[in-house]
């Protein structure tokens, strides 16, 4: 399991000030906590962690000297400044079902004869700690134009320990359409004629 170190943050320290000082702010909450814990994480430590973890990942979070088994609930990233602003964590309790997301990873993309369109990046679901899923690999190697895969077609949808809402089960994850070569063929013909002249 991936680990991350954090320090308790005084609410007197403003988030903008901490970011200027090289920290990422965060919040830790959960049913087992009397109240949520505001934290700060060294920017380099946060970047190292996020290079292998993301929203929906399970991890061990050390706050000062206490370890917590947590789920990464939210990652607030500023694409303009190219920096992570905040990471929120939920403490996992044995037997408690939590809302999370599983990242969708398409495999055998290169075997598909057609144009692949990915419609979903992640699958929202609810599960206990023991059944959490970080990533779902979807093999699309056998798909042909006109084919598609829905959430309900995947193994995660058949797992009795994982709850997915009926409307999500009906959503299309990936579809394949016919490749059109019309423009390319025309360009090739013109090039051919020009080279022969």
UniProtKB/TrEMBL annotation:
Question: Large ribosomal subunit protein bL25 L25 domain location, by residue?
Answer: 4-89
The answer to keyword RNA-binding applying to this record is yes
Task: Kindly state which keywords UniProt assigns to this record, in alphabetical order.
Answer: Ribonucleoprotein, Ribosomal protein, RNA-binding, rRNA-binding
GO cellular component terms attached to this protein's record = ribosome
Q: Which Pfam families match?
A: Ribosomal_L25p, Ribosomal_TL5_C
**S-adenosyl-L-methionine among keywords:** no
Name of protein: 50S ribosomal protein L25
Could you tell me the superkingdom of the organism this chain comes from? Bacteria
Which residues are in the Large ribosomal subunit protein bL25 beta domain?
Answer: 98-179
Q: Known InterPro entries for this protein? A: Rbsml_bL25/Gln-tRNA_synth_N, Ribosomal_bL25/Gln-tRNA_synth, Ribosomal_bL25_b-dom, Ribosomal_bL25_C, Ribosomal_L25_dom, Ribosomal_uL5_bac-type
């Amino acid at each position: 399991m991936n680990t991350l170190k954090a320090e308790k943050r005084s609410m007197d320290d403003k988030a903008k000030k901490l970011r200027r000082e090289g920290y990422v702010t965060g919040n830790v909450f959960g049913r087992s906590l009397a109240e949520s814990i505001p934290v700060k994480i060294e920017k380099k430590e946060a970047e190292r962690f996020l290079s292998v973890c993301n929203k929906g990942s399970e991890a061990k979070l050390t706050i000062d000297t206490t370890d917590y088994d947590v789920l990464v609930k939210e990652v607030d990233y500023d694409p303009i400044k190219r920096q992570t602003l905040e990471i929120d964590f939920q403490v996992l309790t044995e037997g408690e079902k939590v809302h999370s997301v599983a990242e969708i990873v398409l495999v055998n993309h290169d075997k598909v004869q057609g144009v692949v369109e990915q419609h979903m990046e992640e699958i929202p679901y609810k599960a206990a700690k023991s059944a959490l899923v970080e990533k779902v690999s979807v093999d699309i190697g056998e798909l042909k134009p006109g084919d598609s895969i829905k959430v309900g077609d995947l193994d995660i949808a058949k797992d009795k320990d994982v709850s997915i809402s009926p409307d999500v089960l009906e959503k299309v994850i990936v579809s394949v359409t016919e490749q059109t070569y019309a423009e390319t063929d025309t360009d090739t013909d013109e090039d051919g004629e020009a080279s022969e002249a």
